[in-house]
Amino acid sequence: xxxxxxxxxxxxxxxxxxxxxxxxxxxxxxxxxxxxxxxxxxxxxxxxxxxxxxxxxxxxxxxxxxxxxxxxxxxxxxxxxxxxxxxxxxxxxxxxxxxxxxxxxxxxxxxxxxxxxxxxxxxxxxxxxxxxxxxxxxxxxxxxxxxxxxxxxxxxxxxxxxxxxxxxxxxxxxxxxxxxxxxxxxxxxxxxxxxxxxxxxxxxxxxxxxxxxxxxxxxxxxxxxxxxxxxxxxxxxxxxxxxxxxxxxxxxxxxxxxxxxxxxxxxxxxxxxxxx
Length: 276
Fold this sequence. Notes:
Elements: H1 10-24, H2 30-37, H3 41-49, H4 56-66, H5 70-84, H6 89-98, E1 104-109, H7 120-127, H8 135-148, E2 159-165, H9 167-170, H10 176-189, E3 195-200, E4 214-219, E5 222-229, E6 236-238, H11 241-257, H12 261-274
Parallel strand pairs: 1-2, 2-3
Antiparallel strand pairs: 1-4, 4-5, 5-6
Helix pairs in contact: 1-3, 1-5, 2-3, 4-5, 7-8, 10-12
């Protein structure tokens, strides 16, 4: 198939180069490299065949393990992911340069579970609502979203602060079973030392976050370095100081509306039981 032709497909070309690098570095099997990198073998397999370009984290670890030029392969990875379509071009800079490098992420969501905390069935249910997507398209988008979650499994993950409107855990995305699993995951995640989840109860009514979701990223030594605003079809990466400061003010306002961590944990536990 043309999709796997390295002369016409950037993901296939990158996959071939990564396979050669793996063998040259002494990793005779994909299992051996997967064990070294700490990722599932299927991540290695799909990267080498060109079925799924490696994420920023996977590629960086691959370059380190196989002593590759990380700048060169980083550019090849960007081309491969853009051609693959699983990460939109307008979102690539955020995923590659900001989210992957962040020391802290402050994430507000009025409608949906944050992508970094979504289960596979929940993400699939969301993408299934989009008109015109094939099963392969949905599979690619879900895989890309789940792969991004690898930053939370790193040895030194970013601190993830999340504020959710209560409606997020009450909206039946994918049905009762999907929501029961999803809210249980949120409840478990909220106990991790690097994740905090707080809820704005529905009884609050109107609040400053109803205009839309946003994320504020602190890079090492650069608090409030950038932000991301969600849109109906395309988000916007924000780096202007005035715009980021405005979102930081909004964040502080939303935190004042949220209930305490312990009360938020209790609400998540109750919501999970309500879906069973």
